[in-house]
Amino acid sequence: MVDDTSRKRTVRGTKIRASREQKEGRKAKKTLARASNADERNGDTPLSDPEEVVPEPFVETDAVRSLRGRISGWLEADQPVHLIGPTGSGKTALALSAAAERDRPVVWLNGDEAVDTEALVGSHAGGERYEEHDRYVSGVDKKTQIVRERWVDNPLSVAVREGATLVYNEFSRSDPAAHNVLLSVFEEGVLERPGKRGEDRTIDVHPEFRAILTSNDVEYAGVHEQQDALLDRFIGVHVDYYDAETEREIVGAHVDLSADDIAAIVETTRALRDALEIVVGTRAAITAATGLAVFDGHDGDGEFDDETLRRVFTDVLTPKVAGEGGSDIDDLRSRVAETI
Ligand SMILES: Nc1ncnc2c1ncn2[C@@H]1O[C@H](COP(=O)(O)OP(=O)(O)OP(=O)(O)O)[C@@H](O)[C@H]1O
């Protein structure tokens, strides 16, 4: 019977070549380590394939194609594009369609009060303690304690590094101070990661990185005014409501109603848009159509009766005035009734 102690001694004294299995194992471990580093760096930021972000449905009329052509042209000219327009006019759908046209991954970011520099760029996710065991030579177990600072990149860093198209929706809802890091991205092609320690504190902007930002017109409540120095670096494309034909096609693509019904809904939407001070976007037309498809309410001639149209449009638009007192809702009801 072989004495265990002596076997260890013998083995320790012999130079052992790593077996093929050991080599394969180490290679696999390295691959895994690389993959998990990438996941870690990307944090929760998904990199979408361009075809995944195509809005569904997406209607392309001359008006839509012309706007998207302008956006795509400016992106090709390496200019960040800022889509500005009223709520529900189609900015997000256009931004995603233009992003999908580029054959690059897409990173999505939603602006709001909570977005600060860290949320854009990344942060330390705490220290991670792990033990490294060296069992290369059987019988020898060398342990080393390593504490590694984990840094997790957020959407801007991921997009800049990967050469993605960043779609930054409702950009003007975020605190303008958070956007200081954007200046050097667009001006010098460098992203600084404040808070990051070590040599890779900055990232060189990938040549294929592009940004499409969307904002409601600045007069809308709750929107911060962004610094001029930054706005100056964007191309501004105004996205107004589409022409009636495009709106009809859009509403018809979303809701299964007859062409006559869709035409009546779009005509009513556009009349209310002109008559009321509140924003009556294409989204409102789609929502009204969704309701009308359920409530029906056709008269003897097969047309929507006015009373049903009034009720549905009042319900759709009430959230825009609710909270400002009951009299505003009464006012809305009578203005809708006058228009329809
Ligand atoms: N070309 C299009 N084809 C199909 N649907 C569209 C198109 N453009 C806009 N829409 C639809 O119209 C509605 C409003 O569009 P979107 O959300 O893009 O507007 P927005 O201007 O980004 O709105 P908000 O300012 O509220 O974010 C959505 O339901 C969207 O799907």
Write the SSE topology:
Elements: H1 4-12, H2 20-42, H3 62-76, E1 81-85, H4 91-101, E2 106-110, H5 117-121, E3 122-134, E4 142-153, H6 155-162, E5 165-169, H7 180-188, E6 190-192, E7 202-204, E8 210-216, H8 228-231, E9 235-238, H9 244-254, H10 259-275, H11 282-295, H12 306-317, H13 326-339
Parallel strand pairs: 1-8, 1-9, 2-5, 5-8
Antiparallel strand pairs: 3-4, 6-7
Helix pairs in contact: 3-4, 9-10, 9-11, 10-11, 11-12, 12-13
Bound molecules: adenosine-5'-triphosphate (ATP).
In terms of DSSP E residues, the strand content is 15-25%
Order of helices and strands: HHHEHEHEEHEHEEEHEHHHHH
- Largest sheet properties: 5 strands, parallel
Using DSSP, what is the number of strands? 9
Compute the number of helices: 13
Write up what this structure looks like.
- This protein has 340 residues and is an alpha/beta fold.
- It folds into 3 domains: 1-40; 50-122 and 152-238, Rossmann fold; 244-339.
- It is built from 13 helices and 9 strands.
- The protein has a 5-stranded parallel β-sheet with strand order 2-5-8-1-9, with helices on both faces. It has a two-stranded antiparallel ribbon with strand order 3-4. Strands 6-7 form a two-stranded antiparallel ribbon.
- The protein starts with a helix and ends with a helix.
- Residues 1-37 have low confidence and may be disordered.
- The structure holds adenosine-5'-triphosphate.
- Adenosine-5'-triphosphate is lined by residues 55, 57-59, 64, 85, 87-93, 214, 216, 250, 253, 282-283, 286.
